[in-house]
Specification:
The protein is α/β, with parallel strands linked by helices. It contains six helices and seven strands, in the order H-E-E-H-E-E-H-E-H-E-H-E-H. It has one domain: 3-Layer(aba) Sandwich (Rossmann fold), CATH 3.40.50.300. A seven-stranded mixed beta sheet has the order 1-3-4-2-5-6-7, sandwiched between helices. Belongs to the TRAFAC class TrmE-Era-EngA-EngB-Septin-like GTPase superfamily. EngB GTPase family.
Length: 221
């Protein structure tokens, strides 16, 4: 397996912390269709955002070692609610509806797009938005619009280039550099960009380590 390009080197203890966070089952909590149906604020939350069909559900399944936890589909717009998952009571993972193109009625797309934006603007326990970008296509105008909103509301977000195995090394390096330049002056952007492939397992251990750094400490055994 070829080494994964990264802007950050993770220590062995960080990798182990990420492994341990997801070593026990991550369980489905609930689906929220409105702000009123969100679970009570508790442990820190991280959410996964991205264009429809970018691979959010597939990435969550890879991170949690559970192939069927998040519902993955080749049909854009399958996820139409905010789906919550509990990681040992230390962290909640949130799978957001995809934005952009979706095979759904326009009024439904507008409704869950509005819900997503309201959630991102007002959730006090949200520690980071992991914003997925297909490495084959790069940033699109709809991605930039969401980044503008997150910058405005000071919600920290980290870009995750998915499907990194689909590019040759030189292409991936260029995409990584172009993406880094695009976020260089954005105030809410986390500087490190994650490169992942759910299919090949590239970058999964590193992303787990990053997520674990945002979780509550584990209880002593």
């Amino acid at each position: 397996m070829k080494p994964v390009l990264t802007e950050r080197t993770y220590q062995s203890e960080e990798i182990e912390a990420g492994r341990l966070l997801f070593a026990r089952p991550v369980t489905f909590m609930k689906s929220a269709v409105s702000l009123a149906t969100l679970p009570p604020m508790g442990p820190p939350e991280v959410c996964f955002a991205g264009r429809s069909n970018v691979g959010k559900s597939t990435l969550i399944n890879a991170l949690t070692n559970h192939a069927g936890l998040a519902r993955a589909s080749n049909t854009p717009g399958r996820t139409q609610e905010l789906n919550y998952f509990d990681a040992q009571g230390r962290l909640n993972l949130v799978d957001l509806p995809g934005y952009g193109y979706a095979k759904a009625p326009k009024h439904k797309v507008q409704a869950w797009t509005r819900l997503t934006r309201e959630f991102l603007r007002g959730r006090a326990t949200l520690r980071r938005v992991f914003m997925l970008i297909d490495s084959r296509h790069g940033l699109k105008p709809v991605d930039l619009e969401l980044m503008d909103m997150l910058d405005e509301t000071a919600v920290t977000y980290q870009l995750v280039l998915t499907k990194a195995d689909k590019l040759k090394k030189g292409q991936l390096t260029r995409m990584h550099e172009e993406t880094a330049q695009a976020i260089a002056k954005r105030p809410a952007a986390f500087p490190a960009i994650a490169l992942t492939s759910s299919e090949k397992g590239l970058g999964i251990a590193e992303l787990r380590a990053e997520i674990a750094s945002l979780a509550l400490p584990s209880e002593p055994v």
